[in-house]
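Sample pair:
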Amino acid sequence: MPIYEYHCKGCGHDFEYLVLGGSEPDHCPSCNTSKVCRLMSTCGFVTKGSGGQTVGKSASSSSCTGCSASSCAGCGH
């Protein structure tokens, strides 16, 4: 049973929703509007060097050019 992330276009609230049998959320739990969309989830991983030190983190950088947000949920893309 997957958990998806959603964004409310009405109030800007981001929330998670457990999808059972393909059912999508029909409203925002914060403001009750039906203007919700599924977000593209990011996976995070840590890259270790030969000495065991952390050399990179995937979730700490944005894939958008010129964007300072840590995820696309932060800037709305």
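Residues 26 and 32 are 9 Å apart (CA to CA).
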